[in-house]
Amino acid sequence: MEPANNVSEFILLGLTQHQESEQICFVLFSFFYAVTIVGNLLIIITIKSSQSLISPMYFFLSYLSFVDISYSTAIAPKMIADFLVERKTISFAGCMTQLFFGHFLGGTEVFLLTIMAYDRYIAICKPLHYMTIMSGRVCGWLVLGCWTGGFVHSIIQTLLTTHLPFCGPNEIDHYLCDVHPLLKLACTDTYIVGIIVVANTGMISLTSFVVLVTSYVVILFSLRRHTTEGRLKALSTCASHITVVIICFGPCMFIYLRPTTTLSEDKSVSVFYTVVTPMLNPLIYTLRNEEVKNAMRKMWIQKVD
């Protein structure tokens, strides 16, 4: 039996409801989005055009940049456009589409960051077997697994939400369509669905985070056998990844590792993984990585010449 659904659109209350603040946010978040697109595109172009950046680490980094561009595009343009209008609406289909792509791309990024930690573990702890273990075929299958995992995670979230009855009110106290705010609007008991959401999204974030932390603990112990130069180079590479992981996983676990409740801080915290993380990823990886910076310089010199 189909759920009774009297809602054809939702009203988003947005990040803020103060007109002056919205004007400032429009300029600020437009800048953030532009930096995200340009920065991540630059990383993709640099890696694809450079003969020196052919290791699996950069293969995964190029896909991370692509996911960041896609994820930011699924969220940011709608949010930025809403800063210019008083009544922020989104159709039911548009809301579910944003929900799907938000979790699809977000889940893919979580899995991809986990794979990148595994890559660093193999490179540092088993350097002699690195290219054998992380062959091109294996890397391709790992990336495919990340996309598949993100899809399965998202389709579960989306189907659970789509089949809920919405009969009003239709105001979402957020700037995007997400599971927790939508569950509050459903005119039925959502306790079981809420548990599944926490088990799905929250446990994926927590499990991946535990795997990441374990990987880096093992890496740190293994670095004791390396030379000082090798130790510093490995720590520099790992530090970039750890920084991204903290910025990404911290807010995700805050939002999803709890029962279906919404807090006043949720919107501010969500900004970190929907806007800030995709923007900072290229900056973090390039500012701390001499190989990427050198490749960018060579590419720039070739273009100028």
TrEMBL record:
Family from the record: Belongs to the G-protein coupled receptor 1 family.
GO (cellular component) term, any one: plasma membrane
Main subcellular location: membrane
Transmembrane regions: 26-45, 57-80, 100-118, 138-156, 191-223, 235-257, 269-287
Superkingdom of origin: Eukaryota
GO molecular function, a single term: olfactory receptor activity
Organism ancestry: Eukaryota, Metazoa, Chordata, Craniata, Vertebrata
All residue ranges annotated as the G-protein coupled receptors family 1 profile domain in the record: 39-285
Keywords from the UniProt entry: Cell membrane, G-protein coupled receptor, Membrane, Olfaction, Receptor, Sensory transduction, Transducer, Transmembrane, Transmembrane helix
Membrane topology value: Multi-pass membrane protein
Subcellular localization(s) per the UniProt record: Cell membrane; Membrane
Protein name: Olfactory receptor
